[in-house]
Amino acid sequence: MKNQFLSIDFDNTNYKRRVLWKIIGLVCLFLLVALSGFWIGEEQLEANMGEKNLSPSLQHPFGTDWLGRDMFFRTLSGLHLSWKVGLFAAVISTAIALTLSLLSSVNHFFDSLVTMLIDLFLSIPHLVALILIAFVLGGGVKGIVIGIAFTHWPSLTRVLRAEILQIKSAEYVHVSRKLGKSRMWIIRHHYLPQLMPQLFVGFILLFPHAILHESAITFLGFGLSPEQPAIGIILSEAMKYLTMGMWWLVVFPGLSLIGMVVIFDALGNNLRKLLNPN
Amino acid sequence: MLQILNIGKFILFRTIKFIILLFAVIVCSFLLVSYSPVDPIQSYLGAEMMVVREEQREEIAEYFGVNESKTEQFFHWLTMFLHGDLGTSLLYRQEVIVVIQERFLASFALMAISWIVSGIFGYVLGVIAGMNEGTMIDKAIKSFCFILASTPAFWIGILLLIVFSLWLGWFPIGLSMPIGMLAEEVTVWDRLKHIILPALTLSIIGISNITLHTRQKVMDILESEFIRFARAKGEEGFRLFARHIFRNTLFPAISVHFASFGELFGGVILAEQVFSYPGLGQAIVQAGLNSDVPLLLGIVAFSALFVFIGNLLADLLYYFIDLRIKNGETI
User: Lesser CB count within 10 Å: N end or C end of chain B?
Assistant: First the structure.
C-alpha cells in the first residue's frame, strides 16, 4: 500500500517537473516573439521597390510583398501588435471578471444582475458584438482594442462565480463571518487566495481568444489603417495578390499567428495542470 | 400529457426570457449607436455631401429625425421595431427586413450544409478518438482539433481558395453566382460550385468543438459499469459502439452542436468575406463599414434570435434526455 502511494507520489512530482519544463520552454518561445517586436525599426518595414514580389529565400525567409517589404519583419511586428492587444484585453477582461464575480457573491440581487449581464453578452455572436462596438467607436484602433478588451470576460466570470459559490459555503468562511470579519477581509483572506490559480490560468487563456478575434476584425477591415502591420490586414491585403501566385503572403503570416495562439493555449493548459492537477 | 405541458411551459419560459433579453440587446445597441460619433447625414450622403444645399440637408435631417431628442428618437424607433418595421437600409435602398430575408436565405444554405457536414465528421472523429484513447490515432485527432481551434477561419478559407481555385481551377474565385448571367439561367450546379468552398471552410472550423466534446463523452461512458458488463460478455469494437455508445453520445453531441450557433454565425461572416459570398455576414460587414445603422441594428437583433433558437433547441434536447433518465428508460 505504502509502496503504491510512494510510486504515485513519485510519478506526480515527475509529471509536475515535466509540465514545469514545458511551461518554461513555452515562456521563452513566447518572449522571443513578443520582445522581438521592440527592435523592429522603420527601416526593416520600409518599402524597397528593388526587391518586389520575391519568393521566400535565405535573405527574406517569408518573401517580400508587392512593395518590396520584408514579410518576415512585417509578420513579426504584426504578432507584436497582436500580443499587445491580447495583453490589454486579458488585463481588462480579467479585472472585469473578478469584479463581477465578487459582486455576485454579495447577495441574490447582484448575483442575478451579473447573470443577466453574462446572458446579455452571450446572446449575440461575439464577432457581431465586436463589429457593433468597432462601428460605435467610429472605427480606428481604439474601436477594436476597446471592443476586444471589454467582451472577453463572460466565460471567466462564470468560472470565478462558480468557484466563489463553492468557497462561500465552506466551514471556515462561516466561522470568519460569525467572528464578525468584514466582507473585504473575507474577500482578501479567503476568496482571493483561492481564486488566484483560476484567475491566472483564465488570464493566460484569454490571449488566444483575443488574438484570434483581433485578427478576424482587422481582416474584415475594421480599425487599423492599411499600413499598420496587423496579421488580419496582411492577410486581407494578400488576398488581392493571390492571382499573382504569391502564396507566401498568406501561408507564413497565418502559420505564425497559429503558432502564437497555440503557444498561449499550451501555456494556459500546462499552467492549469500544474496549479490544479485535477 | 403532463410532459407535453411541461415542455410547453419550458419553451414559453425560455421565450419570455429571450424577449426580455432581446429587448435589452436592442436598447443597448441603440444607445451605443446613438452616441456614436458617426454623422448619420454625412454617411447617408457620402460624396454627395458637397453638392447638397443647406436646406436639403435640413430636410434630410428632419426626415431622419436627427433633431429629435434621444428619448424621442428611441421611442420612435422602438414603436417601429415592434411593428416589425426595421427601417430602410441606406446601403441597399431596400427595407431592412427584406435585405435580411434575402441574405439569410443565402447564408442559411451555407450554414445548414456546413453544420451538418461538421456535425457528422466531428462526431465520427470524436468516437474514433474516444474509443482508442491514448493511441496514436487519438493523439493525432486531438492535436488536429487543438490546432484547428487556434486557426483563424478566414485563413483556412484563403488556403482553400489558393489550392482549389487558383492551383487546381476547380472552383470560381467568388460570388454565389457567375457574373454576367441572369438569375434564371443559373443552374443548380453553378450555385453548388460557388457554395462548396465557403461551406467547406465553415465545416472544417466547426469540427474541432464537436470532436473534442464527443471524445470526452465517449471516454466517460467507456468507464461506466454497464460497459464493463458488456465487455465481459465479449462485446468490443463496432458492436460495443452500436449497442451502447451510439445512443448515449448522439443526443449530447447534437445538443452541443446546436449550442454553437453563435460561432457558426461568426464563421459565416468571415467565410463570406473571403469568398465574397453575398449573404448576411457580408451584409453586416458592409453595414458596419459604411455606417448603415438600420441594417446593422437589424442584423444584430436577428443574430440574437439565431443564437437563441440554437440554444433553445440544445436545451430542449437536454430536456428530453433528462426526461428519459427520470422515467428510468435506458438511453
Answer: N
